[in-house]
């Protein structure tokens, strides 16, 4: 059931190979783990996607690094790329606040509270508040950087374990269901 769902919505490996950015990887895209949907490959793809989703920058940068790490670690490439989408313009601010809190706790940098940001989204155009947001992120410094690294590791580890465990539970459920069906015949 899960495989059918993923196969229905994920692009084919030929479509991905023809992409001009992914095509840069050439013959490295022929490893079977990059395309097959099995427990280890999908769990690894989720872990890579959750890790690279916190790389500062836009989605194409995150997609590129997700593809690069998927190829290096030989995990499912489409799942890795799609898993980066959890960080988007709506979720990035809470993620960065959580990362800053983690970084502050680890580094012990309690020099003060988080710098305030005044974006006034309704009063300014996007060209005015994006530089203000970037300036605010840079002002967070070491606690944010440490927090982002730790949060990326934590999310990727948790995602890997959840997918592996969920996949295992689903397989056990299906085995038992099949066994019950066979007992009735």
TrEMBL record:
Keyword Membrane: yes
Boundaries of every DUF2062 domain copy: 25-176
Key words, A-Z: Membrane, Transmembrane, Transmembrane helix
One Pfam family recorded for the sequence: DUF2062
Entry annotated with the keyword Transmembrane: yes
Positions of transmembrane segments: 61-83, 90-108, 144-163
Domain of life: Bacteria
Cited PANTHER family: SLL0298 PROTEIN
Name used for this protein in its record: DUF2062 domain-containing protein
Native organism: Nitrosospira briensis
């Amino acid at each position: 059931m899960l495989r059918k769902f993923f196969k229905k919505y994920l692009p084919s490996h030929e479509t991905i190979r023809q992409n001009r950015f992914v095509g840069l990887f050439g013959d490295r895209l022929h490893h079977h783990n990059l395309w097959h949907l099995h427990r280890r490959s999908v769990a690894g793809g989720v872990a890579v996607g959750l890790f690279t989703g916190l790389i500062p920058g836009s989605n194409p940068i995150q997609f590129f690094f997700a593809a690069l790490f998927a190829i290096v670690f030989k995990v499912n490439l489409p799942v890795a790329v799609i898993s980066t989408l959890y960080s988007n313009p709506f979720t990035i601010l809470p993620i960065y606040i959580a990362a800053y809190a983690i970084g502050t706790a680890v580094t012990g940098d309690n020099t003060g509270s988080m710098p305030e940001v005044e974006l006034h989204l309704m009063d300014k155009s996007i060209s005015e508040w994006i530089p203000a947001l970037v300036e605010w992120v840079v002002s967070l410094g070491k606690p944010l950087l440490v927090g982002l690294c730790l949060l990326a590791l934590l999310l990727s580890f948790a995602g890997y374990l959840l997918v592996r465990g969920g996949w295992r539970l689903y397989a056990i459920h299906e085995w038992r269901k099949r066994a019950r069906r066979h007992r009735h015949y």
